[in-house]
Amino acid sequence: MFQRRWRDRIVCALAALALPRPSRCILSASSMDLSPAAKFFLSGRLAKIRTEVGRSLSASSRTAAGGGGRFTIIFPGAGGPDVLTKELRSAVLAQNPDGGPVEEIDWTRHRGSPITAGFDSGAVGEGCADWLLSGKKKPDAVHGIGISVGAFAADAFVRRCAEELPAGTHVHLTLLDPFCGLGIADPGYGERRFGGGRGVSYAEQYLNTDDPVPFTNDALGRCVVYDVTGAEERGG
Q1: Which of 68, 117, 139, 185 has fewest C-beta within 10 Å?
Q2: Using CA atoms, how far apart are residues 76 and 229, in angstroms rounded to an integer?
Q3: Burial bucket for residue 1 (CB in 10 Å: 0-12, 13-18, 19+)
C-alpha cells in the first residue's frame, strides 16, 4: 500500500509539472487501467484527445466508419509515421488486397511529454475505436497494429472494439517491439494488460531483445511471442 501511494505521488508531481492542470472529469468507458492519480491529473486531457481523434477521422479518413468488412489500423511510435510504417502499410495491403482498408494514424499532435506518451497513445486508440464503432454497419474483423509506444493505442483500440462488437467478430492485436511502461510509476503495464482484453481473438508480439530502449525487451505473457532478435532480415 505504501509503495503504491509513493508511486502515485511521483506521477502526480511529474504530471503536474509537465502539463497545465486539467479539469477533474473522469474518462467514461475507458479501456485503460489508470491509477487514481492518473485519472485525477490526466482525465481531462485524455478525454479531449479521444474526442479530437474521432472528429479528425470523421473529417479526413479515407474510409467511412460503418463500411463493414475488415478494418486494419496502424499506430506508429511517438515519432509518427515514417518510411518503415508506410512500407508496413503497403505490405499489409499487398498481403491481402481484398482485406479492407488500412489506416495509418499520425498521433504526434496529441503526444505530450515522455511521461504522458503512453497515456496519450491509449486515448488515441480509444478515439479511433469510438469513430469506427459510430458507423451503422459494424466491421466483420478488426486488426490493430502498434509500434513502440503506439502499443498503448493498439491495445486500447482492440479492447474497446472487442467489448462493443458482436460476439464472433475477429479482433486481432499485433505489437511490434512494444514499449510497455506507462509513465514512470507503472513499468509493468504492458505485461499486465497488453493482449488480455476480453473478446480479443488473437494477440501477438514481435520482440527483439537487443533494443537499448527500456521496457521493450521482455516477452508478454498474454501474447504469442515471436522473437526476431536473430532474424536474417535484421542482419542477425
Answers
A1: 68
A2: 20
A3: exposed
pLDDT (tens, 9 = 90+) of the chain, 236 residues, equals 434 443 443 444 344 334 333 333 333 457 788 888 888 889 999 999 999 998 888 776 656 555 668 899 999 999 999 999 999 999 999 988 777 889 999 999 999 998 999 999 999 999 999 999 988 888 999 999 999 999 999 999 999 999 999 999 999 999 999 999 999 889 999 999 999 888 899 999 999 998 888 899 999 999 999 999 988 776 65
Phi, psi of 146, deg, nearest 5 = -120, 135
CA–CA dist 189, 180 (Å, integer)? 6
- Please name the residue ranges forming H helices in the chain: 2-18, 36-60, 83-95, 117-133, 150-164, 189-193
Q: What are phi and psi of 144, to 5 degrees?
A: -105, 130
Residue 203's identity, in one-letter code, is A
Question: Of how many residues is the chain composed?
Answer: 236
Count other Cβ atoms within 10 Å, centred on residue 202.
14
Q: Of 165, 31, 150, nearest to 85 (Cα)? A: 150
Query: How many alpha carbons fall within 13 Å on the CB side of residue 154?
Result: 35
Handedness of CA 103, 104, 110, 111 (dihedral sign): positive
Q: Which residues of 137-176 are buried (b: 16+ CB within 10 A; e: fewer)?
A: ebbebbbbbbbbbbbbbbbbbbbbbbbbbeeebebbbbbb
